[in-house]
Amino acid sequence: MAMAMASSLEPVAANQDGDALAALRKGLEDPDGNLKSWDPSLVNPCTWFYVRCDGDNRVTRLDLGNLNLSGTLAPELGQLEKLFSLDLSSNSISGAIPAALGNAKSLTFLHLDHNRLTGPIPRELAGLPNLGIADFSNNDLCGTIPTDGAFQKIPASSFANNPRLHQGGEYEPNC
């Protein structure tokens, strides 16, 4: 009985990942058609281009760098519990970094550099236990550079070329 329950949960998790990616896709403009394989009617997002999964069909990597994408990031990215690597660098993505991304506890590599992101760096990201490499450079982020938790390991160069971002001071949620 327990075995049947476990196997019935796997498609639900895969669907949750697919729903999160569908929400991301909905918020992005894709003028070159790079994400045309992202068909939300398919149960398994592991067949989509630029998506990598583990043996349980859980999304572990999103390699969306340099695809001429614009738009905003969906908070549903935080639902990707097994996401290890997120690369959205060298696009024209605008808006804020969703605080919910701090729920993606497996996240180890985060590349958001060379976009048009605004707002503060969410403090929720400091709670990512495995975050080892993060790059927020070349955006329009503002407020203070976080230095606690996961950010203790992130070099200052990862925050470069954000003219409204500075070291020290109180967190500014609405900078």
What does this structure look like?
The protein has one domain (16-166): Alpha-Beta Horseshoe (Leucine-rich repeat, LRR (right-handed beta-alpha superhelix)), CATH 3.80.10. Helices cover 15% and strands 21% of the residues. The protein has 1 helix and 11 strands. The protein has one helix at 2-27; strands at 28-29, 51-53, 59-63, 70-71, 85-87, 92-95, 109-111, 116-119, 133-135, 140-144, 164-166. The strands form 2 sheets. It has a 6-stranded mixed beta sheet. Strands 2-3-5-7-9 form a 5-stranded mixed beta sheet, with helices on one face. The radius of gyration is 17 Å and the shape is globular. It starts with a helix and ends in a 9-residue tail after the last strand. Residues 1-10 have low confidence and may be disordered.
Offer a few descriptive terms.
6-stranded mixed sheet, 175 residues, Leucine-rich repeat, LRR (right-handed beta-alpha superhelix), 5-stranded mixed sheet, alpha/beta
